[in-house]
Known about the structure:
The protein has 21 helices and 13 strands. The chain is of the alpha/beta class and 474 residues long.
Amino acid sequence: MELKEQIQPHAVLIPVPFQGHINPFTHLAMKLASRGFTITFVNTESTHERIAKAHSHKDDDNPFSHAEESGLDIRYARISDGFPLSFDRRANASQFMIGLTHVFQAHVDDFIENLVLSKPNPPVSCIIADSFHVWGSMIAKKYNLINVSFWTEPATALTVFYNADLLKRNGHFGRHDKYDDTISYIPGIQAIKPEDLPSYCQDADPNDIKYVFKCIEDAQKADIVIGNTVQELESSTISALQEQQPFYAIGPLCPTNFTKKTISTNLLPTTDYTNWLNNRQDGTVLYISFGSLVNLSKQDILEIAQGILISKVSFIWVLRHNILVSGERNILPLGFEEETADRGLVVPWCSQLAVLSHPAVGGFLTHCGWNSILESILCKVPMVCFPVIGDQLTNRKLVVDDWRIGVNLCTRGLIRREVVAENIGKIMNRSDESRKNIDKTKMLLQNALSDEGSSDKNLNQFIQDMKNKILQKN
Length: 474
């Protein structure tokens, strides 16, 4: 047996402490552990407390305890993010992000140092840090570890960031007024409009731009970049990335072992919303959710709600206690819930996968978070797209323009209730083109994950390359 086959890598996984990043990191941990890795998974104390409360866990519970029962070597750790547990991270987002850049880095450094000095068996050999951390390369170099950057968004967004200098030279960086231009000079991207660039390349807050591009600069220093995407979904873009550094598409990193018919009995315990869905005809319910970090204005909520009234569609709407731009709490129009009581359900939280997988659900009104898009594809649910920030704008382009598995909620952020109703109607029409296309897109994802599929091959190649690099360091 070759020496590299005898190596058991020990990887420390550190996601950004937001649920949309933690979810794919969790599935990555399980995948790597099932391939013989030892995993040390690092969560922040505040994230652990929030997840534990949501799942009624005790404070000392290990969310990977079920993995241990399966013989997987996943070790769970919690460290401070530099703020007290009582600190409102959402309401003080800018301060929190600054802390992640500086204070959290020091806590990670201390943790890695103590872990390395403790001489675990097997020894720590690599760090897999979220690409939205700015310190992965520094810590990896300090402790002589393989530096892997995990990109949790589509490869298209990463390619845009990698080519920001091209945007600047051509006058498209930070210019939100050039909507009618077509950008065709980014390697691997045939054509993209300025309005479809990630918001950080448009007119976002300068502090946000500075932080994001520090992250990108650090990702470019990584030994390997892995992405939560599929080769066949973004083939030309991924090929362009691979010319710059090793990049492996190993997605989708989300649950895949379910079907429409097993959800209400096998995946999760019966809940009020699954009971409600069980009493609806197949394909008739619109699921509405804008994620946990998206802020909507009161006017946005009003127009969407009125559009739903006009469409007369059945729906389940997740309305979290989001803070609005105006500082108010999300509120629906007076009488909305009473008027839709026979066909609608408003909930503060639900299991998105449970809802999307339910046979009653026929459409998804979404903010276009990347995890939401992948889950929607796997569940064969076409989308009504309402992106707000970050990569969501680019994700919308992929869904609507490239893959044709969804429609826009509105044009350029201007929400009108009549247009909302019209586009909801397009998706809920079961003969819509997007419904046929999403069947094909799901097959791409399933084939990629199958034995000898592209994601399976890429994961194996990533593991072999990492073992080679570990040998070289030793």
